[in-house]
Design brief:
Length: about 800
């Protein structure tokens, strides 16, 4: 006879005389029941929680029923919490697995209550359900020595340094590390669990010019505080370009140039049971220092253009306010995000002709507030249909200014005292995932965006014609071409996406994706200065198509093959009011621009033996840009032409080799030829830009014994890009080869201490800088890692 029990045990009653006795009551007349005859039998052996049960919980249950926002307020992280139950009552009754609702759920005996739910994990097997039944029948014991208070600490102090022969700045730019002595803490971490629901953690590193600190306090069923700060330094070389026709050696600025990039943040989270998860945060981002630039104007001899190094002083800060909310109601997941940015940028650079022909001073300021709020909803409507949708609103208010003073010909100053910009955007999207239907899965989405922008700014140019021979003979500046410009546009864009997956063919999966986008824009520009005569009304339409199709197959266990083809088409059309556009104005004479890209990629993987795995990848990208113009005196004869072609191929070979149980070798070799062609209008100065890039990356580790590991890494890169136009213009390109070798040893000293010593060798040669960027470097570091728990 089949036994049937009510779905939910209500009140466990404690009896001192016989231990724990559980009595059951019906929640209401006609309560749902389960068919116990369908339960898998309990395992017949003694069950160990750590070996048999905890892995099942970790793989299938803790994701939803852990200490952080557990579903239905039911937790499986401790024995006390698991026996307490959740919103629906008691789920585990020690000694009575057949009467424990947890078993009914994981055995899929209750409609709409399968655990884990679809998409949250793989269903439990009958053997796993049997283990859970035996564990409950045997008393639902937990780990014997489960600690309520835990403390762990680890630290890795490091000391060492790098000696560099040659260009130290170029070494730091390429390797992201300073020359000279370095040290500090490569890593430190402390975790203290004061109770099962409270944790304090600290982690980070502290080295020369590189700092990071993360702090967190988490309290289950209450919330958290997460905070941190990190800063690193980006180094730049002070050496500019080089051309034999301009200079006998590469120009350099003569100083160290670097930029400090950092971020500080704090997040306050609230995670109360039955409340939405809410987080309020503040973030401060900054970039401060000097950034290297290469100018193409002032370093010149006669009519030859030159390349001069210069630096830009940068002070950029962003204050960010953040708020997030996550909740679930009636099976609908709700996600709300707000972000407000207060941005400020101040830059300045002075570009001095190192041959004394003049200099240029440029300063720029920009500040804005941008607020954006998004809300997203998602729900699994049926077993075969998943839907999501969202809305974004964004508002931008910005102010800027710009000043450019050039005095190598005459004292010319271009000043834009104020630029204002306002922009507002609305974005809606909806998405759906359907299937699988006999191996076919379909995804589709649509998004609509509307943006309105208004810009306004004034420009004043001044000229001092009495500036001669590097000396200012007069400070009387004459206004030249004042302007007061207004620019407005409205943009509407729609995007449709679709994806197909088919996996019924044995050992093979087929896939196809498509993205279509339509965009229209109306822009109106006008100089409001009386008598200026500049008015332009441009209508812009763009159609974009991006299609990809391919497959992956593995007909044999040792072989797999993946390939896809992608076609990208970007078609833009411009229509200007002929009665308003200036006759030779840019870009008023451009009628259309088309860009097509073809991509082919294939990967063959071969794993013939357990000790050998190899793969070969080929990729080709070919892009062609076509421009159509109207006849415009002094600008274009009209008609269509191929404005540019870019052809890139990548050949890559990866091999993993384990010839002995304690020896591991891996290597990646790639070859990348690239060619870029642009319309030259029969000008010999414009030449084909082409070249090749070669790279090798190899790693090796060897376990010498139980206490000692050896390791080594080698990387090589070589490139030769350039143009053949030295006779008539300034050739652009680069040739270099770079080698880097790191090798070391790890030695475990006792149970909690590890000593690491590593050596590095670096070399770089760049003929296109006449050797000015060459360097050779040697480094050695020692690290001692200590762990205590």
């Amino acid at each position: 006879m089949n036994r049937r029990l009510p779905l939910r045990p209500l009140i466990p009653v404690w009896s001192a005389g016989c231990g724990l006795a559980v009595f059951w009551c019906l929640a209401a007349a006609g309560a749902d029941t389960v068919d116990l005859s369908k339960l898998p039998p309990a395992a017949s052996r003694q069950v160990d929680f750590s070996k048999d049960i905890k892995p099942i919980f970790d793989a299938s249950c803790i994701r939803c029923h852990g200490p952080i926002r557990p579903k239905s307020a039911f937790r499986l992280d401790t024995r006390a919490n698991s026996l307490k139950g959740g919103d629906h009552g008691v789920d585990i009754v020690p000694g009575r697995s057949a009467g424990s609702p947890l078993i009914h759920y994981v055995a899929n005996l209750v409609a709409d209550m399968q655990m884990p739910p679809d998409g949250k994990g793989e269903p439990l097997t009958p053997a796993q359900v049997g283990l859970l039944r035996a564990w409950i029948d045997q008393g639902a014991a937990w780990e014997k020595n489960a600690a309520t208070n835990e403390f762990s600490f680890s630290a890795t102090p490091a000391v060492g340094g790098t000696t560099v022969s040659g260009n130290k700045q170029k070494f730091s730019e390429l390797t992201w590390q300073p020359a000279g002595v370095n040290g500090g803490y490569d890593h430190f971490e402390m975790i203290e669990k004061t109770s099962p629901g409270a944790t304090f953690a600290m982690a980070g590193h502290m080295l020369r010019d590189d700092y990071k600190l993360n702090l967190s306090v988490d309290r289950t069923d209450l919330g958290f505080i997460h905070a941190g700060w990190d800063q690193f330094r980006k180094y730049y070389s002070d050496t500019g370009g080089y051309a034999p026709s301009v200079a006998s050696s590469a120009l350099d600025y003569g100083r160290d140039i670097h930029l400090d990039i950092g971020k500080a943040w704090v997040d306050f989270g609230l995670e109360l049971p039955h409340w939405p998860r809410m987080t309020l945060g503040y973030e401060y981002d900054y970039r401060q220092g000097d950034e290297a630039m290469t100018d193409w104007g002032l370093a010149k001899t006669g009519n030859q253009r030159g390349v001069a190094p210069t630096e830009e002083h940068l002070n950029e800060t962003v204050n960010v306010l953040k708020f997030s909310l996550d909740d679930e109601r009636a099976g609908v997941a709700i996600e709300e995000r707000f972000r407000g940015e207060f941005y400020n940028l101040q830059t300045h650079y002075t570009n001095t002709d190192l041959r004394g022909n003049g200099r240029e001073n440029v300063s720029e300021g920009n500040s804005y507030f941008q607020g954006a709020n998004t809300i997203r909803l998602e729900k699994k409507v049926t077993s075969w249909f998943f839907a999501s949708g969202g809305y974004l609103f964004s508002q931008l208010n910005s102010d800027g200014n710009f000043t450019d003073s050039v005095n190598h010909i005459a004292d010319l100053m271009d000043r834009v005292p104020s630029i204002t910009l306002q922009r507002q955007s609305h974005v809606f999207n909806a998405n759906g995932l359907m299937g699988p239907f006999h191996g076919l899965t379909l995804s589709a989405g649509v998004q609509a965006e509307w943006t309105s922008q208004h810009g306004f700014g004034g420009d004043n140019a001044f000229l001092n014609p009495l500036f001669t021979n590097g000396n200012i003979a007069s400070v009387t500046l004459t206004p030249v071409d004042p302007a007061m410009l207004s620019s407005d546009y409205d943009e509407f864009q729609t995007t449709e996406t679709v994806g197909l997956r088919y996996n019924t063919i044995p050992y093979t999966a087929l896939f196809a994706d498509a993205k279509l986008q339509q965009e229209t824009l109306g822009q109106f520009d006008q100089d409001l200065q009386p008598g200026a005569g500049f008015t332009q009304n441009t209508q812009f339409a763009n159609h974009l198509g991006d299609v990809r199709a391919g497959f992956n197959t593995s007909p044999w266990q040792s072989v797999s093959f993946t390939a896809h083809y992608r076609r990208y088409e970007d078609d833009s059309r411009y229509q200007n009011d002929p009665g308003l556009a200036p006759p030779a104005g840019y870009p008023g004479f451009i009628e259309a621009r088309n860009m097509d890209t073809d991509e082919i990629e294939a990967k063959l993987a071969w794993h013939p033996w357990t000790w050998l795995r190899t793969s070969f990848t080929y990729q080709r990208l070919f892009t062609r840009t076509w421009v159509e113009t109207d006849a415009s005196p002094g600008a274009s004869p009209g008609g269509g032409l191929v404005a540019g072609e870019n052809n890139m191929e990548v050949y890559s070979l990866n091999t993993t080799f384990v010839p002995r149980p304690r020896l591991f070798l891996s290597t990646t070799v790639s070859f990348e030829p690239t060619t870029a062609i642009t319309a030259d209008n029969s000008a010999p100065e414009v030449a084909v830009y082409s070249g090749n890039t070669y790279s090798i990356l190899a790693n090796a580790t060897y376990a010498l014994n139980r206490q000692t590991d050896l390791f080594a890494t080698y990387s090589f890169s070589e490139a030769n890009f350039g143009q053949h136009n030295a006779a008539v213009g300034l050739p652009v390109g680069i040739e270099y080869d770079q080698h880097a070798l790191q090798a070391g040893v790890n030695r475990r000293i006792g149970k909690n201490v590890t000593l690491t010593v590593k050596y590095g060798f670096y070399t770089y040669a760049e003929p296109t800088s006449a050797g000015a960027n060459n360097f050779t470097a040697n480094s050695i570091f020692a690290l001692l890692t200590y762990k205590w728990r």
